[in-house]
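User: tokens in, sequence out, please.
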């Protein structure tokens, strides 16, 4: 209660700006229902959960300073703290003041009456600060009087009256650093080595106990000697000892606490050409928009099957990557962003586009990229670096969340890059990784642990056009500038990106070598047209498609006619089509349908008897067991689908018919799933954090409104691509 009361008094002494600053730094303590008084706020600031959240936001220097304050115990003075940290030569006053100021702003440590006070539950959250054990009085308290006497005898203490006095006297002896060092110098080398190792690598050790009256142990047994000499206090009923904090500090001596780590500096390169940086971001963003569009089109025709354990397996990811001519890491990024943006979802254990996907496919580049960028920013995982403990790739879209806090890591990464002048890159990755680990040591661990996630995060930002050459592009800076604490909607971000993205290409150039070239990112409708009748060979600053008999036949199989196809192609070029292309389309059109496959078991109908004889004798078609039924009709032992596939593989262009002889259009049906209303990957709930300014004024009694003013709750974020309304159904989304 004393610690909480002290924090209440500290809160009352804060000015209004300082209190507002504290409420912003400690949002966990202000969640609705709002605290109604400063005393209640002090209680919330002191609970372990709130303290742990505050510790996560400290940089490494402030965290080490807090550990040092806790190690010195209650009511530590500033001078004693400075002495522990090596004095002015090792730590100048400005760095010490900066660290204490950060702790004060978070209401973890404050100065009162020349002493440093610590919030109530900080020591509970940090039981072993700096690797030191608990204080001697805390370790000695559970021991019996007989056990205390056996330890006191080695320290020269005898004939004390009560247990409390034994504890106080033994603790005082252990707090005398000079006496501790004298006893250590007189100990055996074996004990000295064990004590030194325990002081630096402890504070606990097994095999330490105090022998009972009937306990026989060899003379000089190390585990017993460590306990009797007070180097490690054993548990009352066990054989685990812990070195008292005072003893460890004495043994460590002047090197008890390493000096506070300094702020890492990230080397900066020469500013990049702004136009080149913008162009790099535009090219990457356009390529990602095109890739996600092709992925949605593919999933509409060929849904991805999920694993029984959940998620999309590596084999499926590689299959899709091969079909899209993309890398597996790109497919992972596209899928995860599309799921969180509610463009794809599960239906009957298959991953399908949602109704919102059609709106996204027809959207302008700015809102389309805004949806993907916001989804990536809020992803709880790092999509391109999902590994288990053995380094094996995990499935996409589901599974465990491993690694550091991904949204926080992205925020810190962009914060570090945004601190550079516009267009200035970081020239080395290692200092950047060290900087992130220094700023949030409890979130990201050391640089070795968080390094792969930082590299993966940079790679993902590069794919989205937000980073190029380790510098924020104008697109990345717009995202950073529009992501303050109050989360923006996609329309605000789309407005910021509108002037930074080029219009998609809607025309193509057709060459005599049967290729089509599109400069820049193709529009969705242009890409769909070319994909229908040509094979994509390259997608970069310029994309290339190649026409061939098989690709043109694919268009006819889907229901196109020669006139319609040539007309659509001519419309996107504005020039006469090359003669080789028109000849190719006409030739395939004449051949298409000369062979027609009907279901029977099946039958092949041929217009030309000579062609029927040729087909029946073709070596590649012996597996069909073709048998002439007439001069122009052949029976096949295989199904319609197998017969069609075999004929096409042999170089023919058959057309499919139904039993009545009517043409069957082989157009794949594009399926859609309904967007989820809830689930692990649903759109985040609206931000309902408390307005710190209004709350600070109410707590100080200066609010103009009533005391019971409701918490600040902004309007729910609107969907960028609205989906159809449907009733809540627990079975409508995969959980």
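Assistant: Sequence out:
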């Amino acid at each position: 209660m004393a610690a909480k009361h002290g924090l209440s008094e500290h809160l009352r002494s804060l000015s209004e700006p300082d209190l507002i600053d504290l409420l912003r730094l400690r949002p966990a303590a202000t969640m609705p229902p709002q605290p109604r008084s400063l005393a209640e706020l002090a209680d919330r600031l002191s609970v372990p959960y709130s303290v742990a959240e505050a510790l996560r936001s400290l940089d490494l220097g402030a965290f080490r300073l807090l550990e040092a304050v806790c190690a010195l115990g209650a009511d530590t003075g500033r001078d004693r703290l400075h002495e522990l940290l090596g004095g002015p030569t090792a730590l100048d006053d400005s760095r010490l003041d900066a660290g204490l100021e950060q702790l004060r702003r978070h209401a973890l440590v404050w100065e009162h009456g020349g002493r440093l006070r610590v919030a109530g539950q900080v020591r509970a959250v940090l039981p072993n600060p700096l690797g030191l054990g608990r204080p001697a009085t805390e370790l000695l308290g559970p021991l019996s009087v007989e056990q205390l006497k056996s330890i006191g005898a080695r320290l020269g203490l005898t004939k004390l009256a009560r247990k409390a006095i034994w504890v106080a006297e033994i603790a005082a002896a252990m707090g005398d650093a000079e006496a501790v060092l004298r006893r250590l110098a007189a100990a055996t080398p074996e004990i000295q080595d064990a004590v030194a190792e325990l002081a630096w690598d402890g504070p606990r050790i097994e095999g330490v106990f105090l022998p009972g009256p009937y306990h026989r142990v060899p003379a000089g047994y190390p585990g017993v000697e460590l306990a009797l000499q007070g180097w490690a206090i054993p548990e009352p009923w066990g054989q685990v000892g812990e070195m008292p904090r005072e003893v460890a500090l004495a043994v460590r001596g002047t090197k008890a606490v390493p000096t506070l780590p300094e702020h890492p500096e990230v080397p900066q390169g020469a500013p990049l050409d702004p136009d080149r940086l913008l162009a790099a971001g535009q090219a990457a963003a356009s390529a990602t928009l095109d890739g996600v569009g092709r992925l949605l089109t593919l999933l509409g025709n060929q849904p991805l099957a999920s694993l029984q354990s959940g998620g999309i397996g590596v084999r499926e990811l590689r299959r899709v990557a091969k079909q899209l001519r993309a890398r597996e890491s790109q497919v992972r990024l596209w899928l995860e962003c599309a799921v969180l943006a509610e463009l794809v979802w599960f239906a009957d254990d298959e991953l399908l586009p949602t109704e919102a996907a059609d709106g996204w496919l027809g959207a302008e580049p700015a809102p389309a990229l805004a949806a993907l960028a916001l989804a990536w920013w809020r992803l709880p995982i790092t999509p391109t670096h999902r590994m288990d403990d053995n380094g094996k790739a995990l499935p996409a879209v589901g599974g465990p969340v491993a690694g550091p806090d991904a949204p926080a890591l992205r925020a810190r990464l962009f914060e570090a890059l945004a601190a550079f002048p516009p267009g200035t890159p970081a020239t080395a990755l290692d200092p950047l990784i060290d900087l992130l680990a220094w700023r949030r040591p409890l979130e990201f661990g050391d640089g070795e642990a968080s390094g792969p996630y930082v590299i993966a995060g940079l790679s993902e930002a590069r794919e989205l056009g937000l980073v190029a050459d380790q510098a924020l592009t104008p697109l990345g800076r717009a995202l950073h500038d529009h992501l303050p604490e109050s989360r923006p909607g996609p329309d605000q971000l789309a407005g910021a990106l509108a002037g930074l993205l080029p219009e998609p290409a809607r025309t193509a150039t057709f060459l005599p070598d049967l290729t089509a070239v599109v400069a820049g990112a193709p529009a969705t409708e242009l890409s769909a047209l070319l994909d229908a009748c040509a094979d994509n060979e390259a997608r970069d600053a310029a994309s290339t498609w190649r026409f061939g008999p098989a690709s043109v036949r694919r268009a006819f199989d889907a229901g196109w006619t020669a006139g319609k196809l040539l007309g659509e192609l001519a419309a996107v070029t504005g020039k006469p089509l090359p003669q080789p292309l028109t000849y190719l389309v006409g030739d395939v059109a004449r051949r298409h349908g000369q062979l027609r496959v009907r279901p029977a078991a099946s039958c092949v109908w041929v217009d030309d008897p000579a062609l029927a004889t040729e087909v029946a004798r073709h070596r590649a078609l012996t597996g069909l067991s073709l048998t002439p039924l007439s001069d122009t009709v052949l029976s096949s032992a295989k199904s319609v689908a197998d017969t069609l596939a075999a004929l096409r593989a042999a170089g023919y262009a058959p057309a499919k018919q139904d039993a009545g002889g009517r043409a069957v259009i082989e157009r794949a049906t594009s399926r859609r799933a309904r967007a989820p209303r809830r689930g692990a990957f649903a759109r985040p709930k609206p931000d309902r954090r408390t307005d710190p300014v209004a709350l600070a004024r109410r707590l100080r009694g200066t609010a103009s409104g009533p005391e019971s003013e409701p918490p600040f709750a902004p309007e729910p974020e609107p969907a960028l691509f609205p989906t159809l309304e449907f009733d809540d159904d627990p079975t409508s989304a995969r959980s």
